[in-house]
Amino acid sequence: MIATRRLPLLVAALAFCAALTAQADTLDTLRRTRTLTIGWVPGNAPFGSHAANGTPQGYTIDLCKHIAADLKARLDLPELKIVYVETDWDTRFTMLDTGKTDMDCSASTMTRDRQARYDFSPAFYVTGTRLLTRKADKIRSIDDLGGQTLAIIKNTTGEKLVMAHNDAASLGLNFIYVLDADAGMAAVREGKAKAFVLDDIILYSQISAAADGAQYEAVGAFLSIEPYGIMMRKGDTPFTKMVSDSLSALLPTAEMPALYQRWFNTPTLNVPLNRLTKETFITPNREPAFP
Fold first, then answer.
1. Rounded to whole angstroms, how far apart are CA atoms 222 and 175?
2. For residue range 164-209, what is the model confidence (pLDDT) as tens digits?
3. Residues 101, 225, 223, CA angle at the centre, nearest 5°?
4. Strand pairing of 118-120 and 129-134?
5. Solute-binding protein family 3/N-terminal domain: from which residue to which, for each copy (predicted)?
């Protein structure tokens, strides 16, 4: 009787595993369709934004274009078309899970939790979570925000960090959710929030691009160390290896500082190459975020 009852469960489990295996075989899909589907988050310069003609552009986009060219060559394909799928900070996960994208080319932090659920390339940039505030408010750290409202984006590492700090320090913070970095800055501008939390490079980009950017600043010590990697489905080992090998070969070359300069040192943005990012170029790695 016990064996009989377990049989349907076993069949279902085997079918589920078979479905995962079929979904995970991305290299075979590329050979068959000659199409690579890339998920990306717009409004996220310098990593991803719309060019004047509406096409995706940015630091991560360029990296993924390089990887696509390598995939085309290594798979000996006459062509490999790139299809870009717009996601947001929440749907980037479900788009991968459902096979609607092959890899996420946005700015995804490699946390331990995410590494348990997804595969990642080596890190291509390292930043940290900080606060965007008005200069006039003279806020220097999250501890100056007791009882105030903080804007956060769902499913970002910043969300977990500030909520944990709020509980530990009994700050009594209020939270409002915003869709993206543009909305976060707007919340501060309109007085709906006293600060907005996100990775500091994205905050710098928001400040640089805003007409009233001189009124804002990114403040506080890093609440975290955030290594960004290209995110892929878990268990898709041959695909993950080929993507990772391509990026690992590129990172230590002279192309990377030049690519960095193109996107991080512009008329509207000037962010020097930090030590942690430089180290990832020299020694490619998948060290997870801290804490």
1. 20
2. 999 999 999 999 999 999 999 999 999 999 999 999 999 998 998 8
3. 115
4. unpaired
5. 35-267
CA distance 32 to 20: 18
What are the tokens at 13? 């489990």
- What tokens appear for 116 in the block? 């348990």
What is the rounded average pLDDT of the residues 154-161?
91
115-141 mean pLDDT: 97
Q: List pLDDT tens digits, range 44-62.
A: 989 999 999 999 999 999 9
Q: Which of 105, 92, 193, 178 is nearest to 147 (CA)?
A: 193
Peptide bond into 291 cis (omega under 30): yes
- What the chain holds in terms of domains, given with CATH numbers, is 22-127+230-282 (3.40.190.10), 129-219 (3.40.190.10)
Rg over alpha carbons for the chain, rounded to the nearest Å, is 21
Residue 176 forms beta bridges with which residues? 151
Give the pair of three-digit tokens for residue 94: 């479900």
Contact yes or no for 185/132 (Cβ under 8 A): yes
The pTM (predicted TM-score) of the whole model is 0.82
Tokens 């806020």 sit at which residue? Answer: 139
